[in-house]
Design a protein that fits this description.
2 domains, globular, 2 strands, 6 helices
Length: 154
């Protein structure tokens, strides 16, 4: 008797399946976001493995993109956040890291001056990405909107 071994599928494989199906079916992140009733930024991050995806959301994405049940289940696995979830050699990621390297200290000082000793939350957080047409070349506008959290004395 032979046993068929099925390799486990994780969030990374599910993310790749989403990207492949999205390309194959020519579906935009905006369309997927509308299906999930979420922002396109949250939707892209969630389906790339950075946020939890509910069973209903996973099934909706599965129907829209034609994903099999194994991938739909994998989309519901816990998120894999942080640096292991991104490719630092991707030029856009490298430029965002450069922004933080060049402007991180200034942003820290400006937040402290404006709000006091604390941080901007990445949990109570929203982000928006826009395209602005300009004669010298279109502009990418990324708005980061995080709740201010003061450090507590105890």
């Amino acid at each position: 008797m032979s046993v068929t071994r099925i390799e486990p599928v994780g969030r990374a494989e599910a993310a790749q399946a989403v990207l492949d199906a999205k390309r194959r079916k020519n579906v935009s992140w905006e369309k997927i976001a509308e299906e999930l009733e979420r922002s396109k930024v949250w939707t892209a991050a969630a389906l790339l493995g950075q946020h939890p995806v509910s069973a209903d959301q996973a099934r909706a994405v599965g129907r829209l993109l034609g994903l099999d049940e194994v991938m739909v289940e994998a989309l519901q696995l816990p998120p894999v956040r942080g640096e292991d979830a991104v490719d630092p050699t991707e030029p856009i990621i490298a430029r965002l890291e450069e922004v933080v390297q060049v402007y991180g200290g200034a942003i820290t000082e400006l937040i402290r001056e404006e709000f006091g000793d604390g941080i901007m939350s990445a949990i109570d957080f929203r982000m928006k990405l826009d395209r602005i047409e300009a004669p010298e070349g279109d502009r990418v506008v990324i708005t980061l909107d995080g709740k201010y959290l003061p450090y507590r004395e105890f």
